[in-house]
Amino acid sequence: MNNSGLAVEVSKDRNGADQILLRNPRGASAKVSLHGGQVLSWRTDRGEELLFTSSKAIFKPPYAVRGGIPICFPQFGQRGSLEQHGFARNRTWIIDENPPPLHPNDACGKAYIDLLLKPSEDDLKIWPHSFEFRLRVNLTADGNLSLISRIRNINCKPFSFSIAYHTYFSISDISEVRVEGLETLDYLDNLYQRERFTEQGDALTFESEVDRVYLGSRDAIAIFDHERKRTFFIKKEGLPDVGVWNPWEKKSKAMVDFGDEEYKQMLCVNGAAVEKPITLKPGEEWTGRLELSVVPSS
Ligand code: BG6
């Protein structure tokens, strides 16, 4: 721990993968695994867990952990021969000891860790593009969690990708939550072969399976949890789209790494860039930011 009370500790999980615990002076914390570069826990200063992880999650490669914030790259969804949601969430990342500098605001007063993913020879066989994916995970003095991704093309040809922070929020009960910030937007509905619809309601509530990508959203979204009396805020930059997913009853039963009733306690709301893939020329870098905060509500 340094003088400001910010702490960064590295330890091993039960499968031998390194995990990093970030703590701020008030006692809020976040846990990040090198398996998938995945945030697995985000807790308030009262120790309340804010992210959902399934009791049946499998913590072993090649599975991505069912919970936390898996990073979907180089694709979100399933197209072509590349695996669903890409391979970044299944790979072992390394700690980036010497990352190129970020803006001082992205470090000052924060507990943070920098991770790096580069493709292996096998990855290049399935996606033939050399890249460096740098991820900074920040925990602020207020307990906010931010993820800053920098993806650089180190190829000699351009490449395109889509990306999502597949965030599993922990909620009291799916029938008690409401999402604001997506009203009037067009969305692609994965339950109808990605057909395009327009959101009609004032806010999104849940009564059955939802699997959508909202297009071109504003940069702030809120999830109100009435029963638990708390509201999550999602702020994003460079991530125009928002995936919303709840598998509901039937799909829950079909997933080996998810409890039959757990759909009631989770909601995925994902900052993403999906509809218009991002193209990087050789040497170019893209930056995307997600910041999550939570406040008590009445
Ligand atoms: C959502 C997709 O984002 O992720 C769903 O839109 C998918 O179609 C879900 O079922 C979970 O995906 P996975 O690969 O983690 O089981």
UniProtKB/TrEMBL annotation:
GO terms of biological process kind: carbohydrate metabolic process
Binding, substrate: R66, Q84, R89
A Pfam family of this chain: Aldose_epim
Cross-referenced CDD domains: D-hex-6-P-epi_like
Single Gene Ontology MF annotation: carbohydrate binding
Gene3D superfamilies: 2.70.98.10
Catalytic reactions of this protein: alpha-D-glucose 6-phosphate = beta-D-glucose 6-phosphate
UniProt name for this protein: glucose-6-phosphate 1-epimerase
Organism of derivation: Gossypium hirsutum
